[in-house]
Design a protein that fits this description.
about 325 residues, alpha+beta, 2,3-Dihydroxybiphenyl 1,2-Dioxygenase, domain 1, eight-stranded mixed β-sheet, 5 helices, about 35% strand, dioxygenase, Extradiol_RC_dioxygenase, oxidoreductase, VOC_core, Ring-cleaving dioxygenase MhqO
Length: about 325
């Protein structure tokens, strides 16, 4: 049975101090902190989710902050670059904003698009690209308005230890279409209008090492629970080892490591982030799954306090 994912559901990375993480993604990039919870497998660690106003799939980047941990190394077996889509005409605003926060950036062209590349505060490689497709983000923050706000993911660049095998998984398992090759990169496209462009680096280099400043996994979209179970069977039929379904409260998840060593997740679009708090209040308080609610006081004492702060005042 042939299946196609709509595109990226979310990307999860490891970072350093949680307040620095919040300051960068909310304060500088203007994303909404849509969920403040804990790593369900390590509840002494935050799991922070940032995205558009509604926290829709294709806009969500999530983080496990490990304060004082040794930095990781970006390399093969990882998502190397996370790409964000911004509205057409918004690039001058973003170059000025990055400059105002003393964030170095470079400019290049790939597949006919102008790309601005920079690193976050903990070393994750990011880029901005103007795209007409995708709905506008109605979340505004500081000087970032609807005409400049990040829409969501443009896509991602995969660093694979076996690029040809990763390419085959993207087309034969995930249902993406190969659309172009340019220089050292091959581009694949999914059916969504956001989080839909995946570039695979065709050459290999050093192997990545997990730690702050690296992506832990990339998650792909499943329509609902029934589709999710169909995906699980589909992946098994491709002779890839896939996990049991994991309840992540805001979606169900399955995981498998593709032959190029990149950890893939497939996650359901529902129920989303507003089922345990209202959309208006998402991200304002620590939300815990039922199994950890009895430990709320202990976890609050362990976790480093964080807050979303308006940082435009430090710009020059």
């Amino acid at each position: 049975m042939s299946k196609q994912t709509a595109g990226i559901h979310h990307i999860t990375a490891i970072v350093g101090h949680p307040q620095e993480n919040v300051d960068f993604y909310a304060g500088v990039l203007g994303l909404r902190l849509v969920k403040k919870t804990v790593n369900f497998d390590d509840p002494g660690t935050y799991h922070l989710y940032f995205g558009n106003e509604g926290g829709k799939p294709g806009t969500i980047i999530t983080f496990f902050p490990w304060a004082n941990a040794r930095s990781g190394t970006i390399g093969d077996g990882q998502v190397g670059v996370t790409s964000y889509a911004i509205p057409e005409g918004a690039m001058p605003f973003w170059k000025q904003r990055l400059t105002s926060f003393n964030i170095p950036f470079s400019e290049s062209e790939r597949f006919g698009e102008q790309v601005v590349q920079f690193n976050d505060v903990h070393g994750l490689q990011l880029e901005l690209v103007e795209r007409a497709a995708g709905e506008s983000n109605s979340w505004t923050f500081g000087k970032i308005g609807k005409d400049t706000a990040i829409k969501g993911f443009g896509g991602a660049t995969l660093y694979s230890s076996r690029p040809q095998h990763t390419a085959a998984v993207l087309t034969e398992v995930m249902g993406l279409e190969q659309v172009a090759t340019e220089g050292d990169f091959t581009r694949f496209r999914s059916t969504a209008d956001i989080g839909n462009m995946i570039d695979v680096k065709n050459s290999t280099g050093q192997r990545g090492r997990m730690g702050p400043g690296t992506v832990h996994h990339i998650a792909w979209r499943a329509v609902d629970d029934n589709d999710h179970l169909s995906w699980q069977e589909h992946v098994m039929q491709q002779h890839l080892h896939v996990t049991d379904v994991k309840d992540r409260n805001y979606f169900n998840a399955i995981y498998f490591r593709e032959p190029g060593e990149i950890l893939f997740e497939i996650a359901t679009d529902p129920p989303g982030f507003a089922h345990d708090e209202s959309q208006a209040t998402m991200g304002s308080q620590l939300m815990l799954p039922p199994q950890y609610e009895q430990y709320r006081d202990r976890l609050n004492a362990m976790l480093i306090p964080i807050e979303v702060r308006e940082l435009d005042r430090v710009s020059s």
